[in-house]
Each structure stands twice: as structure tokens, then as C-alpha cells.
Design brief:
Low-confidence stretches: none
CATH architecture of the largest domain: 2-Layer Sandwich
CATH superfamily of the largest domain: Phosphorylase Kinase, domain 1
Radius of gyration: 22 Å
Largest sheet: 5 strands, antiparallel
Order of helices and strands: HHEEEHHEEEEHEEEEHH
Number of domains: 2
Structural class: alpha+beta
Length: 262
């Protein structure tokens, strides 16, 4: 009888331990409960069980297609966890950048199938940019609509880097030239056009860092040159307010396109 009670106590203790652990995990992920669906929650728990993340904290940024949260890896270092909305996603604008991309076949309008492809598109684009030497968050892993990437900012203090629009730029001309150079490297070496580049999609961490590259298209895309010109126009418009005098956007675009052809 005494031995049976001991086994029972051990079993109950183990159950209590698991319940407490699950409760702790639930508390860690409570910050995202209002914006994700149950299948996404399961993905987060799988990432937790695999040790890719050990905690998930508040939002670094929020957007129409996804939120980015600060996660913690197994070594206690911060990560960026991007969770793409599925149940409330606005998908119509995505089709413009998906259809015609040879990397993705059978693109459908339904968010359940389109959003995971959209997330994978950003993951692939980050890899292309990163491998080409363009400063972007280093992609780590992706599962369905959850992407893990490098945290950009003060790693020790877990403070995210600010957007370019919120920074007092000490050398506007050199920063402008740096960004145009990054656009050119993206075009000539990564084979990509960002297609939504502005001061709202560039972080500042001892220099510019491109983010939000889900809409970036291959240079073979039918609208790639149009998007390239638009990106350059946006950057010129921002830096013009800082006193930078630049060549016409068409001239810069032609130079980049010619460099890509060579």
C-alpha cells in the first residue's frame, strides 16, 4: 500500500510539474493570443519544444500583414519572431508580387494557402539579400506562417533598432549613397528589387538595414523595373528633405539596370 502511494505521489508530482510548465509556456505566449489562430499557437509550441525559442515577449512592430515579436533563444539572446496573420489577412495586394514569381506555382487567393507562401517568399528573399551582402536580418528558420530571424538592435539590452525615419542622420549624403549601393547590390547580386523601400522599411543599426522584404520580386518579374524606379524615388524624396541633391531617379535606375545586365 505504501509503495503504491509512493508511485501515485510520483505520478501526481510529474503531472503537476508538466501542468506548471505548460502554464508557464502559456504565460510566455499570452502576448500573442489575440492576433494568432490555434494552428499558429501549435507552431510556436513546436518551436519551443525544439529549443529554437524559449520565450516570446511583446511586439517590436505591428503591420497590416504581420507582427514582429521579441523572442529569446536557448542561449538567452534575443530573436525576432515574425508572425503573419492568416485569419484576418488582407491578401489582394500580395497577388501583384506573387503572380509571375517563378519560385511559386499555383498561387491561390485563399489566405490559408497564400499566407504560408508569402512568408516563405520573405524567407527566401532574406536569404538572397543576406548571401549577396545586403544588410538584412539573418533568416534562421520558418514554419508555415512563423519566421525566426536575427534581432536587429542592442542585443545586450534587447532594444530593437529604430526606423530610419526616426533617426537623426549625421551624414545624409553618405547614408543616401549607401542605400543606393544596397539597392544596386540587391539588383545585381541578389537578383531582387525590394518593391516597397522607404524610410519605413529601413532600420538603423550603425547603418541602414533593409526589412520587410516579402514583396521583393526577382528582376525577371514583369514589373521589376517599375518597382526599382519607385524605390529610388522614395529614397530620393526622403533624403531631399535632409538636403541631399541627387540625380534624377530615372538616371540612377538606368545605371543599376545596366550594371545588372553586365
Amino acid at each position: 500500500m505504501k509503495r503504491a502511494e509512493t508511485k501515485h505521489d510520483q505520478l501526481q508530482s510529474e503531472l503537476d510539474r508538466r501542468k506548471m510548465k505548460r502554464r508557464k509556456d502559456d504565460d510566455e505566449f499570452k502576448v500573442v493570443e489575440g492576433v494568432i489562430d490555434p494552428p499558429t499557437m501549435k507552431i510556436l509550441y513546436r518551436l519551443l519544444s525544439r529549443g529554437i525559442i524559449t520565450a516570446l515577449h511583446g511586439a517590436i512592430s505591428t503591420g497590416k500583414e504581420a507582427n514582429v515579436y521579441r523572442g529569446i533563444d536557448a542561449d538567452g539572446h534575443p530573436l525576432a519572431v515574425k508572425i503573419y496573420r492568416i485569419s484576418t489577412a488582407e491578401t489582394d495586394f500580395m497577388l501583384e508580387y506573387m503572380i509571375g514569381d517563378t519560385r511559386f506555382k499555383n498561387v491561390r487567393r485563399q489566405s490559408r494557402s497564400l499566407i504560408p507562401q508569402w512568408a516563405m517568399k520573405e524567407f527566401k528573399n532574406l536569404h538572397r539579400y543576406y548571401d549577396a551582402g545586403v544588410r538584412v536580418p539573418r533568416p534562421i528558420t520558418i514554419e508555415r506562417n512563423v519566421m525566426i530571424m536575427e534581432f536587429i538592435g542592442d542585443v545586450k539590452k534587447s532594444i530593437a533598432a529604430p526606423l530610419l525615419k526616426n533617426v537623426a542622420i549625421s551624414s545624409p549624403v553618405s547614408t543616401f549613397n549607401k542605400i543606393i549601393g544596397m539597392i544596386e547590390i540587391g539588383y545585381t547580386k541578389a537578383g531582387l528589387v525590394h518593391a516597397d523601400l522607404s524610410e519605413y522599411n529601413i532600420l538603423w543599426a550603425n547603418g541602414p538595414v533593409f526589412i520587410d522584404v516579402s514583396q521583393a520580386v526577382l528582376i525577371s518579374h514583369q514589373n521589376a523595373k517599375q518597382y526599382l524606379l519607385r524605390d529610388i524615388q522614395n529614397i530620393i524624396h526622403f533624403f531631399k528633405k535632409l538636403g541631399v541633391k541627387a540625380e534624377a531617379p530615372e538616371v540612377i535606375a538606368r545605371h543599376i539596370i545596366a550594371a545588372g545586365e553586365n
